[in-house]
Automatic annotation (TrEMBL):
InterPro entries assigned: FtsX
Membrane-traversing stretches: 21-45, 169-192, 224-248, 268-290
Protein name stated in the entry: Cell division transport system permease protein
GO biological process: one example: cell division
Protein's UniProt keywords contain Cytoplasm: no
One Gene Ontology cellular component annotation held by this UniProt entry: membrane
Keywords of the record: Cell cycle, Cell division, Membrane, Transmembrane, Transmembrane helix
């Protein structure tokens, strides 16, 4: 091996800084990716829950017969139920059992909720064949002829605040992912510049030995890509474990709403690809920064 080749090999080892082991850059990348994946999981889960809620509530109505006299209330409920089942746009109309209503009222009324003289409205659950706005309007208009005691509530209307919160969380999570990606690129830029300053003398020797800017940049790029990959694997695995643990806990609650805040197969694939995207982002940011900085060193 010639003297020039030995000198170049020594310079490369100094630039790559292999003897230092895992540097702070690795831990920074792991933490950044961990937080990014948690934010991405939140966004994907809430977006999926919002879509599920839309599908579950679309075309669903609740008809209330608000009548104090039990006899008149039951008679009106029977007529409304018959009319609903005869409407072509209604796929399903089922009266809500009095025992179910009593069970729902028990936390607020206690044993008094079971009193048969309690003026509890009769309720009918309705599923429309068409989930559009026009179908719901037609059904509500047809029921108005039964008198002012008939009230029609759309599930989408009273659950819209929840849906709005979910969509807000989705956009917030997306903003956090973009912010974390920008912060990661900034960290890589600072690390690359610090490395260039630390090894300025070595880079000068490499230039005198015939190394080009692209060759030097490739060395730094390889080191940063390796740090990003190690940090990405560690942070990514930790994030996936945390997300899986939270998903199991939410599923165990038995709540239909919270149970929908879970990830599908495509969501898991997207999360698994985030570490790859982080490594690519770090590598490109390092290459652009180093190539630009090397033009001003010598």
């Amino acid at each position: 091996m010639s003297g020039a080749t030995k000198a170049r090999s020594s310079a490369e080892r100094r630039v790559l800084d292999e003897a230092g082991g895992l540097r702070a850059m690795t831990w920074v990348m792991a933490i950044m990716l961990f937080l990014t994946m948690l934010a991405a999981a939140l966004g994907l889960a809430t977006a999926g829950a919002a879509r599920l809620l839309d599908r579950q509530l679309a075309g669903r109505l609740t008809v209330q017969i608000v009548e104090g006299d039990p006899v008149r209330r039951d008679g009106a409920a029977a007529r409304v139920l018959a009319a609903l089942r005869a409407m072509p746009g209604v796929a399903r109309a089922v009266p809500v059992d009095r025992a179910d209503l009593t069970r729902l009222l028990q936390p607020w009324l206690g044993a008094d909720g079971a009193d048969p003289q309690l003026p509890v409205p009769a309720m009918i659950d309705v599923d429309l064949g068409d989930s559009g706005e026009a179908a719901a309007v037609r059904v509500a208009a047809a029921l108005r002829r039964f008198g002012p005691a008939i009230r029609v509530d759309r599930h989408e209307s009273w659950m819209s605040p929840v849906n709005d919160v979910m969509r807000t969380l989705t956009f917030l999570a997306l903003a956090l992912v973009m912010l974390m990606a920008s912060a990661t690129a900034a960290v890589v830029v600072l690390a690359a510049r610090a490395g260039l300053e630390t090894h300025r003398a070595t880079i000068g020797v490499m230039h005198m030995l015939g190394s080009t800017d692209l060759q030097v940049a490739r060395l730094f790029q390889r080191r940063i890509a390796l740090d990003a990959m190690i940090g990405g694997v560690g942070g990514g695995l930790a994030a996936l474990l945390v997300v899986a643990f939270i998903g199991v806990r939410l599923h165990g609650l038995g709540s239909e709403l919270l149970g929908g805040v879970t990830l599908g197969g495509i969501d898991w694939i997207a999360l698994a690809l985030l570490p790859v995207a982080f490594v690519v982002l770090a590598t490109l940011a390092a290459r652009v920064t180093i190539v630009r900085a090397l033009r001003h060193i010598l």
